[in-house]
Amino acid sequence: MRARKRSVYRKKKKEKRKRKKENHTKNTHQSLAKFPKPGGQKREISADTPSTISVSNFRTNRRTSFIVHGYSVDNEDIGQIIQICGLLLQMEDLNCIIVNWEDTAAKLYTQAVQNIRIVGAELAYLLDYFEKSCGYSPSNVHIIGHSLGAHAGGEAGRRKQGINRITGLDPAGPLFHDTSAEVRLDPSDAKFVDVIHTNIGRLLFEFATGIIQPCGHFDFYPNGGKIMPGCKEKYLVPKQGDFDEVMRDFASSKAAECSHKRSLQYYSASIFIPDGFLGYRCDAFDSFLSGKCFPCPKEGCPMMGHHADTSPDKTKEIHQVFYLVTAASPPFACWRKRVSIILLGFQNVRGDIIIALAGTNEFRREYLIATGFLYPSRSYGTFLDVNVPGNITAVEFQWRKHPAWQRIGYIGAEQITLVNGKDAHRSVFCGSSTVPPEIWQKLTPC
Length: 446
Hints:
Elements: H1 2-26, E1 29-34, E2 41-45, H2 50-54, E3 64-68, H3 75-91, E4 95-100, H4 102-105, H5 109-134, E5 141-146, H6 148-159, E6 165-169, E7 192-196, H7 203-206, E8 218-222, H8 243-252, H9 254-270, E9 280-281, H10 285-289, E10 320-324, E11 335-345, E12 349-359, E13 364-374, E14 379-386, E15 392-401, E16 411-420, E17 426-430, E18 441-445
Helix pairs in contact: 3-9, 5-6
Binding site for Ca(2+): 184, 186, 189
Organism: Phrynocephalus forsythii
EC number: 3.1.1.3
């Protein structure tokens, strides 16, 4: 019996040495960041060297966020991850840990896919150390992973049960499409899994690297999930080479990766502008655009990004799909509204209806509402995704004559109604005058 125990002990010790050697070879590092101000402190930690944790900023009375990068990272990627960490620390006193596997993520894509198993195992090992040595529960942990990093987070969750939340930022698609839940991010990997899809498609047909199918409890597909506004995607024709060469070409093309990396920027922006990223549950993006899923239900719409876990129905069912529209440039936030206009005048004209909206901060934007023949007393409307923060306090109307329209005409807006997607709140503005083309008419609250 004693000999058997010694044999089991030696076997476990040998396996531990082998795992430590293997992990050291794979060059996975965890950096515990604390950025009270720009250029703040950052320490490397390891469960194999407990002293690195004891002298670090890690505190058991804080929640912990791990951020895991993806394939073939560059300085821009690392900068965005550090930015997310810094913003989280501005919002909350937490432990922010950056998981750096840069050395092996830069190798062949097929090898990087294999390496995420080791990254996930290392992360699970660290969480196990936290729990056993520090009494720190995985229910305090949130893993944020981009691309392959999302699946690495899933691997950690599969190995270490009880993780509170995993956020996948455009999880990688190549070699993960239509695979079983055991090898990719899945709702079973944490108590709550939310995903932002920004570059879905097949690599060889659409040259996109995001996974198509839902992977979480909440799956957000901003702008339909394929090409993001402001990204001029460069579709590269794959060379007559192997799969790794195709992936290397993609990773080296900033134009091709714009949408894939936009998920990082959306998450950053959502930290301090949560209501600017409301997701509407809908069966398809076209249905969302047509207004079939407007407004939010009485229980509200979930917020894409950092605050997704505040939704009361977050774990009611898996693979809940949500759509939204973002702006083309930072901070990307938009607020969906239904706009309806009743025209005032005595004759029909041909042209465009334009309105200008301004918020409490005097931020002003113009939007096209309708085009074609315009008739007095008729109502014209559409759905807008307005990148004007705050309440709408000022509304203006203008019409622009079609080049082929020769008659002189005067029309105006008798009434403009705005309905908020968030809560169905109605704001009504009224006017009593008509204007010639390209002259602004100011309306006032009714």
